[in-house]
Amino acid sequence: MVNDHARLARTLRGLACLLTALVLAAGALILPAAAAAAGSASALRVAGLTTNSRVDPLGIGGETPSFGWQLASAQRGARQSAYEIRVGRRPGAADVWHSRKVRSDRQVDVEYGGRALKPATRYYWSVRAWSGTGAVSRWSADAFFETGLLTAADWRGARWITRPAPVDEIEKWTDYATEVDFALDNAAFGTFLRARDVNNGYMWQLNVTGAEPALRPHKRVNGDYALLGEVSLAGFGFTNAGLRTGRHKIRFEMAGSTISTTLDGVLVDTRADATFAKGYLGFRTHDYAKEQGTVYDAVVTRPDGTVLLDTDFAAGRNPCAGGELTGSALVVAGSSDVLCDPATRSLPLLRKQFGTSARKKVAEARVYASALGVYQLTLNGRPVGDQLLAPGWTNYHQRIQSQTYDVTKLLRRGGNVIGAALAGGWWSGKVGLGWSQQYGDAPALVAQIRIRYTDGSVQWLGTDESWQAGDGPFVRADLQDGETYDARLVPDELAAANWPAAASVPSKTALLVPQSDEPVRATTVLPARTMTQPTAGAYVYDLGQNMVGGSRLTLTGSPGQTVKIRYAEVLNKNGTLYTDNFRSAKVTDRYVFARSETVTYEPTFTQHGFRYIEITGLATPPALADVKGVVWGSDLAATGTLRTSDAMLNQLLSNISWSQRGNFLSIPTDTPARDERLGWTGDISLFAPTANYLVDTRAFLSHWLADVRNSQYANGDLPAVVPTPRGQFGDSGVGWSDVLITVPYAGWRAYGDKAILRENYAAMRKFFDFVRTSAGPDLLEPGRTTFFTNDWLHLDDPTVQGVLGTAYFAEDARMMGEMAEALGDTAAATGYRSLSADIRRAFTSAYVAADGTVLGNSQTGYALALGMGLVSDPALVAKVGEKFVAKLALTDHHLRTGFIGTPLLLPALSAVGRDDLAYKMLLHKDYPSWGYEVVNGATTMWERWNSIMPDGSFGPVDMNSFNHYAYGAVGDWMFQHVGGLTAVKPGYQRSRIAPAIGGGLTTGSGRLETVYGLLSSTWSTAGGLKLNVTVPVNTVAEVHVPAASRWAVTESGRPASRATGVRFLRMENGAAVYEVGSGSYAFAAGR
Questions:
Q1: 35 pLDDT exceeds 70?
Q2: Given a cut of 50, is residue 1069 above it in pLDDT?
Q3: pLDDT per position as a tens digit, 532-559
Q4: Which one of 84, 253, 483, 676 is the catalytic residue?
């Protein structure tokens, strides 16, 4: 598959080089008198073509695509006055659509206007542009886009297939007795009975958390538990302390609808329930209560004496789908649903032998595929594409993404074999707080192969029961727990050829949509830097960077030898891995050798968040060169960089960037390491403006917002996480559910692309109406109180809930007004603007005292009032600013804000002219501050200000991620005020370049690849201020040069007011403000 990131980077580099060359040559460029208009000095150069914000996308949907391009010119102030687009089935053709000449300066979100697109079809397009002087460019090089399969009918009846289940195995598990030898290690321990799967069956729990020990029988139907009763065990002579001590035996007898329970030989309960008549044994614990149990032996016997299960977990054999083998026992801990299904096998492999014509030549070949779960394909033994964890995570009940692969070069003339490996992924593996099977209970594949020959004929081959299914080397694979790969189970060709037929499962084809965002890929490889051995046989490798992905290890072993690989973000003081903060996630991979050999192992169906790798099971440690970390993430093009003279700030920007990379993996997550990894709406709502500087988020966040819309409740509100696993975080709150307004708004402002507004406008209005109804006639919004109340993770500085709610209500109305205006809904825009003004007045009246005190006197309250511009009277704004500064002085200008307040903390100071204090807070290195994380070794952002305490101990273990981008939202202020780059008009069509010189910094440089091209600002103070800027073609910038007067400023060595393409506007806040068009400029001001 085409690597969009790399191709876009190459395209942009090429355009930048072209622009530089043109600028350098401008003074000496001499053209022949007879040169055509396209070759004149005033002509534009067109490059950087994108479709749906991606370079040459393969397999897009059938919705109207939108086009974009970038321009270069040798002249300053170059503009586009018109464009012409042609779209055809072959390069240079216009047989599908021809826009003709369109008089417009648009070069972003230019919609295709031709006839409906066909499925599985490649289209080529090119564009040319007219400059402001009327000179026309040459036609651009052709770009292409290719559609995927657009409707269910396009899949031509391909079936969803998987490995067949063992015949009638579960029918044996009706009436039976089971006896379990166990230890109740902590809090509670549950046993599944007659469980068809982990979401359907009985669960009998022993619980020692109350005053008396209790037996608590439950039934679980489609994932929801119902308590059937509670039996005090104290009356039978049991105590909490006694049950926590030593080993015990519990016996269950099931006969018809009656279930009897005997504990240590004492009959403690008999009850009847007819919900489940058959199903397997299993075990269950929950992480929040730190439940844990150890099973030493489990025996299941039918009334006729048939033994269904008998295991003492000896010799490393675990017939259960989970738990951790420790010696001759199975430890079940954290959030674990462990089913002991005797039919449990390794994960399925699928294959199909097929032939191509021996007499025809293949022109092109595609594979269209998707899965319930995650999958990887091979064709003739070679990997198909470089995508990881396809099809990605969506709300599978409403849409499932499909992928398109170009396999032309992998196909052979004659015989071919296509193979697929499947794993549970988000479909049936652990999701969120460690619960599995949130969408379904087994993975399945759908695929369609399309081969087009040079004579125009087409061959199709879809998944059906003619495919074969078998067992493979992936013994277990879970995104949270890790992967076990047993090389002894790799099937040979002969064995695979004799596999049984695959089985079909109910079709999900109606839910398929072509993937619209960038795939997850391996983007970087990090070598290990050091190795230590904190305990015997445990080799710990440091990659030097907290990252997300997997390991790549070169290992040497013997047949049956098992290597265990564990991961951690940080280390304990003794050098061992600190994994308590992973909660129930096991985060462990295993490799079992098939023979005496050296292999390179890289997990396929799991992902971890880590800096450190621990390897055990080897007599000698692998060399440093043999241990690497492979960075995974949605492959978004990097767009922004920021460098300063301060090493701490540079590391902070690196930390922010790495947290974005690690948590943009199919969806925007909160943390990549522990048992959560959810699409928290509040985190991305606050971080999106920063993310839009770092990478091109258009396709990624638009894809995710489709699931946000699908998750919207009937009343307009939203869940706290999207996608929303069953029963997890369905409630939301202020700053979280507002994501449906804040993220589209931030995207539109960053890219000028109205598609994100069109797609979400109806849902945004519905949500805003919900907020409006929650506010009273006085326009004070009480804050939508839920679990996520107040300023999340603030430091003992709570904010009045109504201040939060009303502030967001006003800000939502302001943003809605701007977006409605952009979409041409002028009546709605007028209404939103008027309402926003009314809410601001109501906020001031209710929450801002005459002396400037914001009710509650919290840092966040002031940050909202000033950062959102909620106070309109200049005199009162000044008073609020004074109170804000006084509040900060109480903590020696150290922050106390949480998730909601932090992004606005420094902007609020800048709003009242206190960039000096903003720098002071930014540059602190003691607790609590951003710099405190850096000096304590952080290479990504922490979830909490106290993830590591000043005494070196770790913060609260139940919620302590070391890779969590929320507090990285300060990057937005840094790019605007240190780098000096701000969008005045959407997409930076008009920008402001105004670095805030201060904080003791002597240099600063911000670079941003906008949709129009490179916008940059580089400044230094040595020998007087120097400010070099670059502005893309077809845009305008306001450049603020700190100076005593306009006459103190030069550009390229001459007075700035007389420089070509430079126009003086005004003096403002101690700076001379100039307007410039495209080009590169070198401003300087005297000492």
A1: no
A2: yes
A3: 999 999 999 999 999 999 999 999 999 9
A4: 676
Which residues does 402 contact at the CB level (< 8 Å), separation at least 6? 59, 148, 149, 368, 369, 370, 391, 446, 512, 513, 514, 515
The residue written with tokens 């619980």 in the block is 207
- Taking alpha carbons only, the member of 698, 672, 694, 669 closest to residue 684 is 669
Angle separating helix axes 681-694 and 647-663, nearest 10 degrees: 120
Residues of each domain in the chain carrying CATH 2.60.120.260: 160-164+346-470+493-514, 520-634
Separation CA 405–CA 386 (nearest Å): 10
Q: What is the pLDDT of residue 289?
A: 74
Q: How many CA atoms lie within 13 A of 5 on its CB side?
A: 21
**Is pLDDT at 11 greater than 60 in this prediction?**
no
Percent of the chain's residues with pLDDT above 90: 87
pTM, two decimal places: 0.92
Place of tokens 């990881």: 388
Where does the chain hold its CATH 2.60.120.200 domain(s)? 170-340
What integer best gives the mean pLDDT of the chain?
94
**For residue 800, which amino acid is it?**
V
> Which CATH code is given to the segment(s) 160-164+346-470+493-514?
2.60.120.260
Q: Rounded to whole angstroms, how far apart are CA atoms 720 and 885?
A: 33
Confidence of residue 170 (pLDDT cuts 50, 70, 90): confident
Per the CB < 8 A criterion, the answer to whether 123 and 30 are in contact is no
Cβ(664)–Cβ(670) below 8 Å: no
Pick the CATH number of 640-978 from 3.30.70.260, 3.40.1360.10, 1.25.40.10, 1.50.10.10: 1.50.10.10
pLDDT tens for each residue of 304-345: 999 999 988 876 778 888 888 888 899 998 888 889 876 667
Is CATH 2.60.120.260 what the domain over 520-634 is classified as, yes or no? yes
Helix (H) or strand (E) holding 557: strand 538-557
Instruction: Give the integer Cα–Cα distance in Å for 610 and 543.
Output: 9
Nearest to 7 by CA among 46, 60, 56: 56
Measured between alpha carbons, how far is 856 from 299 in angstroms, rounded to an integer? 62
| Encoded tokens for 1079 | 């080009």
pLDDT tens digits, one per residue of 909-932: 999 999 999 999 999 999 999 999
- Looking at residue 436, its pLDDT comes to 86
Q: Is residue 784 very low, low, confident or very high in pLDDT (cuts 50, 70, 90)?
A: confident
Contact (Cβ atoms closer than 8 angstroms) between residue 278 and residue 300 = no
Query: pLDDT tier at 457 (50, 70, 90 boundaries)?
Result: very high
* Fold classification of 170-340 (topology level): Jelly Rolls (2.60.120)
For 982-1085, which CATH class?
A: mainly beta
Interacting residues of 898 by C-beta distance below 8 A, sequence separation 6+? 790, 791, 792, 793, 794, 795, 860
Residue spans of alpha helices (H) in 185-271: 240-243
- Is the confidence at residue 33, as pLDDT, over 50? no
Catalytic (active site) residue 943: yes
The strand pairing partners of 337, in sequence order, are: 284
Domain spanning 4-148 has what CATH number? 2.60.40.10
d(CA 980, CA 1041): 11
Cis peptide bond N-terminal to 391, omega within 30: yes
Pick the catalytic residue from 253, 943, 1009, 1051: 943
Contact of 784 with 733, CB cutoff 8 Å: yes
